[in-house]
Q: What sequence folds into this?
């Protein structure tokens, strides 16, 4: 238990969608002071398509009005995602939620910028400090000290590292870590729907086409009059090394896509022809953290904790869920909850809350990471052994039957499972 009733100082590193969600959520804790340190000069005005899964929408709805979310998302009809044959465009399968739920909570597509702005709207004024690039955290007996490139260090009781896939805080503790190329480049762009006015056959749904080499293409509206293009293409390392994360691949990129998709459903080529530009993302990964905490002072969230550059479209939901688990654990183990202390005297039990947070998240995340390896085996030992195209299609459909346990994960229930097991630790 912190020994005085001074506010709990929480320093969040990184102001991406997960850091912003952390600032919005943790600011609700009584007797706490939250500061978010972001290295850039202001909010990033760039980004690509993001699928908001059922899990992401549910956790967002815990701090925000879900009706307002509908204003900047798009939901394809008749189902959130149509899986199509790569060449004929025929629908092979519609993805639906595992059980009927209100429309507002069915997975949808959006664009990173409005999503980020929406979360930022929920962060109290004065919490975010831009131009603060964190370099490391030191921990001593009275707390953590966060150091920056060009600013004075600050003290905090708790540091939440949400500084993304290339997290400096994570790499401070994993000095030998190497991010490795996943063998895939994502080409993504979001543009004005008006550019499609002369294109025949544009679909009103969100569609995904998968090729036998593991290439994926996603097309669809993303809300606010925008349209999204995503292609995930297995590329040799020499192609990937010439491309820079989130930078234009320019005319080379467009020509490359046109050539690559010549044999595919002609709609894909028609849409590539109107793309104003294309951004490249050579996808990298590092092993996920087995524990999301270091001692009693540092918690990791979002891509900093699970550095994987996109998996099952759950990057944002996994990050939101990390933060929700942390918030619930801090809240419930505080004296406001255990003794009914008034807000201004609330004290926090960091060791116990970080333990509950870690227990809530680590088992689920380890299982998701394991699934990414299992999927690799399934591709090698099942999909790639198809005799012909129709055998491959049948096998592909069998592989598309699962993953609702990831996309619809309910972190609140997971938290409750952990707190029920450790009830006596919390309340006695
Ligand atoms: C191809 C692709 C497709 C994807 N599709 C989806 C999808 O459909 N659905 C989905 O939910 N997710 C998707 N994702 C994943 C999703 O984009 C990420 O999981 C999410 O953006 C992670 O957010 P974050 O806040 O953890 O990290 P980031 O968005 O990377 O934010 C990190 C922030 O920390 C700041 N920062 C970094 N270092 C420091 C420092 N030293 N000091 C201070 N600040 C620092 C950065 O400037 C940045 O603002 C996809 C990712 C890729 C690559």
A:
């Amino acid at each position: 238990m912190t020994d005085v009733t001074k506010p709990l100082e929480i320093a969040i590193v990184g102001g991406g969608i997960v850091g912003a969600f952390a600032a919005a959520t943790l600011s609700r804790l009584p007797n706490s002071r939250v500061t978010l340190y972001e290295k850039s000069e202001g909010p990033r005005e760039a980004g690509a398509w993001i699928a908001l899964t059922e899990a992401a929408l549910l956790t967002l709805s815990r701090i925000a009005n879900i009706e307002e979310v509908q204003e900047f998302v798009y939901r394809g009809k008749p189902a959130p995602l149509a899986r199509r044959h790569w060449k004929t465009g025929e629908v092979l399968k519609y993805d639906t939620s595992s059980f009927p739920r209100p429309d507002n909570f069915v997975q949808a597509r959006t664009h990173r910028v409005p999503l980020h702005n929406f979360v930022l709207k929920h962060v109290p004024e004065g919490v975010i400090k831009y131009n603060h690039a964190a370099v490391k955290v030191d921990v001593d007996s009275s707390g953590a000290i966060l150091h920056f490139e060009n600013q004075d260090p600050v003290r905090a009781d708790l540091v939440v590292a949400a500084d993304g896939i290339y997290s400096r805080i994570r790499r401070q503790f994993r000095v030998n870590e190497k991010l490795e190329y996943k063998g895939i480049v994502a080409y993504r762009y979001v543009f004005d729907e008006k550019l499609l006015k002369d294109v025949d056959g544009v679909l009103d749904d969100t569609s995904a086409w998968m090729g036998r080499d593991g290439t994926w293409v996603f097309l669809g509206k993303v809300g606010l009059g925008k349209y999204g293009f995503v292609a995930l293409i297995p590329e040799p390392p020499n192609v990937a090394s010439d491309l820079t994360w989130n930078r234009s691949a320019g005319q080379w990129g467009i020509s490359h896509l046109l050539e690559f998709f010549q044999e595919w459903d002609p709609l894909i080529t028609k849409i590539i022809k109107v793309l104003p530009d294309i951004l490249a993302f050579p996808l990298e990964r590092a092993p996920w953290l087995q524990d999301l905490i270091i001692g009693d002072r540092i918690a990791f969230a979002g891509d900093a904790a699970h550095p994987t550059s996109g998996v099952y479209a759950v990057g944002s939901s996994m990050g939101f869920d990390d933060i929700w688990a942390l918030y619930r654990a801090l809240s419930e183990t505080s004296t406001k909850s255990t003794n009914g202390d008034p807000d201004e005297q609330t004290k926090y039990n960091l060791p116990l809350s970080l333990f509950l947070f870690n227990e809530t998240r680590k088992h689920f995340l380890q299982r998701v990471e394991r699934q990414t390896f299992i999927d690799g085996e399934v591709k090698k030992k099942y999909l790639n052994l198809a005799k012909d195209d129709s055998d491959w299609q049948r096998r592909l459909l069998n592989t598309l039957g699962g993953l609702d346990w990831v996309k619809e994960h309910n972190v609140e229930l997971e938290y409750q499972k952990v707190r029920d097991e450790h009830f006596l630790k919390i309340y006695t």
